[in-house]
């Protein structure tokens, strides 16, 4: 089997069915882009969980005037109540669960609020009296939130105990949903890509049936007849995978590293390193899907 002959047949087939080949490349590109985006989203979720779960705190919000909870029936938290809460945090029963804690006054809460919402129109409408003071508690084991909640939620002067992980879980749930949608769209597009590869190979085999018939008559092997068609499909799948990898690299470089990472320096984002981990899998997937689809189609429509 001569390499020059195989390459010549591949080039001839690609030129003759150029529009179909471009369609295969584009469909493969779109489908693998969704696959890669879903994989990167999962990596982002994992990275953010590992980063933020070590930083999240339990917020013990104290009573203010006219708060509706039963523990705030006597009005705003008093100095003795505040001291009791702090003493509980420093007690031997709680100390094994608490890594550190700090008191946040209304003024400090306002400063943090203005820092977080500096670009929002509501930043100048909020005053310190409208924000609750609190104790910010970092736990040794974030999974032990229920212990802190049980101990402090019924204390006089405590309005509510909030685990910040619950807020993060809502965000992660939304990202997970987006990831599942991306995987679903990718699955549909992959099916379209496989069918389109099969159609392209079938059309290529039909248009070259005279040549393949002659090759059969002169005793050409099955592999030498089918290999050019398989290579055509693999090349189309490979180009689509390379395009998908390039787009994902561009998003990571210019959007995530170049924009998001600079605007939100305290957030752990994925980088081009994760793209280089995903790209080989996308290339392999594109090549395998195109190759298998080509072989199955040839067995069905190109009898040798």
List keywords for this structure.
304 residues, alpha+beta, four-stranded antiparallel sheet, elongated, membrane, cell division
Placed side by side, the strands forming the largest sheet appear as 2-3-1-4
Strand content: 5-15%
Summing up helix and strand content along with how strands pair, one would put the structural category as alpha+beta
Main beta sheet: strand number and arrangement?
4 strands, antiparallel
The end-to-end span amounts to 16 Å
* Count of DSSP-assigned helices: 9
Order of helices and strands: HHEHEHEHEHHHH
**What is the percent of helical residues?**
55-70%
Structural Rg: 31 Å
Q: What is the overall pLDDT average?
A: 78
Count up the domains. Answer: 2
Morphology? elongated
Count of β-strands:
4
Low-confidence stretches: none
Report on this structure:
- This protein is of the alpha+beta class and about 300 residues long.
- The chain folds into two domains: about 5-50 and about 170-300, no CATH class; about 60-165, Alpha-Beta Plaits (2-Layer Sandwich), CATH 3.30.70.
- The chain is about 65% helix and about 10% strand.
- Strands 2-3-1-4 form a four-stranded antiparallel sheet.
- Helix 1 (about 5-15) crosses helix 8 (about 220-265), helix 2 (about 20-50) crosses helix 8 (about 220-265) and helix 6 (about 165-205) packs parallel to helix 9 (about 270-300).
- It is elongated, with a radius of gyration of 31 Å.
